[in-house]
Each structure stands twice: as structure tokens, then as C-alpha cells.
Predict the 3D structure of the following.
Amino acid sequence: MKRILVGIKRVVDYNVRVRVKPDGSGVVTDGVKMSINPFDEIALEEALRIRERGGAEEIVVATIGPQDTQQQLRTALAMGADRALLVEHATPVEPLDVARVFLKLIEREQPFLVILGKQAIDDDNNQTGQMLAALWNRPQATFASRVELADGKATVTREVDAGLEVLEVDLPAVLTTDLRLNEPRYVKLPEIMKAKKKPLETIPLASLGVEPRQRVKPVRYEPPPQRQKGVMVKSAQELVEALKKKGLVA
Amino acid sequence: MSKVLIVAEHDGTTLNASTAKCVSCAHALAGAEITILVCAADASAVAAQAARLQHVARVVKVENPANEHLVAAVLAPQIAALAGAYSHVFGPSTTFGKDLMPRIAALLGTAQVSDIMAIESATRFRRPIYAGNVITTVEVEADGPIVGTVRTASFEAAPEGGTAAVESADVNVDLPAHTRFVSVSAAKSGRPDLQTARRVISGGRALGSAENFSLLYRLADKLGAAVGASRAAVDAGYAPNDLQVGQTGKIIAPDLYIAIGISGAIQHLTGIKDARTIVAINKDPEAPIFEVADYGLVGDLFEVLPELEKLL
């Protein structure tokens, strides 16, 4: 079976303005809207399009988290994934251990392609895909904005600081998605109903033989320093005079 | 004492400015002994530039035809083979470093700290999360060297004036053939580099078209400024992806940032909050960009831009 494995992370929704708890012990997440990490939605959309073009037969989505994470997996199933795996664990798992868990899932599912978001918008780590590719000893093509599959290879256009880089990688491989790879589809109501019947398997993390450990321990959270609100000028002339006075333009 | 290995970013001939910023970050570790590693097909020119940076004790060259293009899957095993002798392995938080460093960390079985913005001790670092809306301080208990990417906007480049010794290292590891460089399309604009420019002018969706972006380029050339763009402008095809400023684009710290027709989504603001002076020009007086601007001007950019061009 030609299978794609897609990683899903449950994160505070993109539109929520996050706040630090008054005692600096963390970020307020109680009662806050949670969603699929936007880069992971792009990963799933890419997998769906590959399947729709006949390039894959099955799409498996997987996440690590508490039972609540089922909501995001159901959304992924409603978008069109065939099966979902919930690797159950109550506390946050760091990228290296996430990569170790996904390596176990790869051994089980034998995908020809693994697609992950390039970063999660909560921790902004941007590590898991690269770590997984290293542990798997397979290619990585990160920050993908275009993917073409043919003859057991992927040709991937990557968004890099210099512009666009193209890599050719042998499959299986790990891809991580950038924003412009695609625009994820909206979920329609009948699909949400159908998704309730799709298989969702819970796997206790401990059963995979991975023992997560916290290596990067947060000791304090704080809001960033705020910029002072400046002045409003009334014309281009006034603006240029102000910039000249500060020596910012000649 | 910390022994820091910094992975140099370069294009084969020129050392990227991000490397000198990593040196400043490493230098903030008490008593750090800093080594710069240059992986290339022919590393001599880049190694000579690295050796001139202050605070650098040593430059190590790893030369191999396979290192002609910097491919993470090829570089990582070579760097991991050398990393064991160091307490820290740093690279820049550019697309080069973001791609490469986690692969090294995983080969070493160790954790990575991404986007280091300040060093509090050899094991304690500050970094932004949630698109820079939260700053967290982390204590690292690594299983090997501490791998980190350095948020370049948080550090000044280390000055020149050093005279580090340059040596070569032989690395005998199997290099994968499964990942092949095909091409890179780098737009050659002749303008200053967005990540190091002292002045930056950025445009948003309000520019309305790729043609209208030329208004911005003209003003930028008059000011000797680099040009940037919001995500919305890049998504709309008005500007290429390498101009994007923000959480998922470039994080910059120019002396002067002029935002034109940019409303100021938090994801954009995270990319510019280290700018010394921010100027915002926008039609909407309620635009969030005005909350962070040192100078704000409410107006139609198609009227303001020609005026600015005349006045500057």
C-alpha cells in the first residue's frame, strides 16, 4: 500500500492572542481555542492532493498528546485522511522524542513519504522533521513550496533565504511544509459526519519503547518588552524632517 | 569553560554575516573558546574571512567535493563526527541553520535550543515562542553538546581584527547520496541584503500589484535601502518569497524600517520589533502597525510615496 504519514500537532489557534500567566509559570491555555497547527494542515492538504492525483493510496495522520487531541485528528479525518493514530501522552514531548516516536510509527506503517509542518506556531522550534530524517537516515526537504513525485524520487522547491532552492531526494523521505505549498481545503459538514466512522487508534506512548525526557526545561515565561508608542505626523514633509533630525536619512 | 563550535554559513566564496553574529552570541558564554567550522569544496577563501573575526580561536576546514552545495543531509554527519569535543554547537537561525542544526542534534542524540536571543549561563538561554509574543528562559540538560540556533537579529556582528589559526580536519564518515542539489534561484537585485541592511522599506498588500512595488524599489534605491514585503504581498505574487519579513520569513533589526501599506499582523511585527526606528504609512488609522511605530503617517501610499521620493 502506498502510504503517506502526516504529523498533526494541537496548538493554540492562530488567531488567539496568547498571554503569559501572572506568575510567569506558563502561557494561559485554559478555555483557549485549540486547532491543528497551520503548517500541519498544509502538510495534510499536500498529502490529499498527492492521493487525488493517484500518487498515494492511504493517508495516515498521527499526533502525540492527551485524549483531547482526538478533536484535531477528527478534523484531519474530515479533511480526508483515511486513518488516525493518537499516541497518548499527558505532558508535552520535545522534538527529539517526537522524532523517536514517529520513527516507531514509520517502522509500523512503512510510508513512502512523511510530511510534517516546518514548525509549530506555539514553540516555534522548527526541529522535528529534520530530527526524524536524521534518525531514519533518509533525505529531508524542509520549507517546501512545491513538490513533484516521479520514479521513486521527489523534486522539491524550498523557500530559502537566498530565494528558491530545488533538491532531488530519493524516497522514502521527510518533507516539511512552508506556507505557500498550498491552501488547505475547508471541511464540509457531511465529511465531519463521515469522519466519525473513520478508524482512530490510541497507542500509549510507553508501548512504543520511547521514554520522553525533558531536556530543555522552561524556567520562566514573560511577555516581550513593549515598544513605546510613537508620534503621528501629518505629512510626508513632517516625516522627512523628523527622520533627518534623528540622523536616519541624509 | 565552554568550547563552542560554530558552523559557518557561506556561498563558497563569501562568509555570510550571520556567522559573525553567532560569534557574538558564543562570546557571551563566559570564557568561551570559539572554533568556526567551514565545510566546503574549497574552504580557503571563507576560512580566511572567518579567521579575521574577533574572539575566534581557531578555524577548521572540512573540504570535500560533496560540500560544494550545503546540503543538510550531507553536512550533518561530518559535523556530528567533530562535535563531540565541544560543549556547544551553534549555527545561525537562517534557513541554512534551521535546516541543518536539528539534523546534527538528532545524530548526537541531544536537544536543540532554537532562536537563542540571549545567554544567561552555559546552560540557560532566552528564546522567543508564540511568534515572539512570549519570551521563555530555558535550562538545558543535554545528553551531549548543546546544539543551538542563534537568532541573528539579537546580536551585533563580531568585528574584524582577529587572527585565528586555520587548520584542516579529515572526516571519515559515509556521506549519503540520497539527496541532490539541483539549483538555487537567487534574485540578484544589487540592493543591500535584507538581513543586514541598515535601512529597509517594506510593502504590503495595499501596493496592489507587482508593478506598484517598483515605487518601493525606486525609493529604496534613493535611500540605499533593502526591500522587504509582508506575507500578504508575497502570497499575492507582488514580491518574491525571499523578501518576506516576519515569523516565518526573515527576522531583521535595521536602524530604520519603513512599512508601507502593511497593516501589522503579529506574525509580521515579530520580524521587525528589533528595528531601531519604525515608520508606518497606512490608509487605515486603526492599523495595528501604528501601535509599534515610532512615526506614523495616515495617508494614501500612492500620494505619499512620490512625495517622499521628491523630499529624500
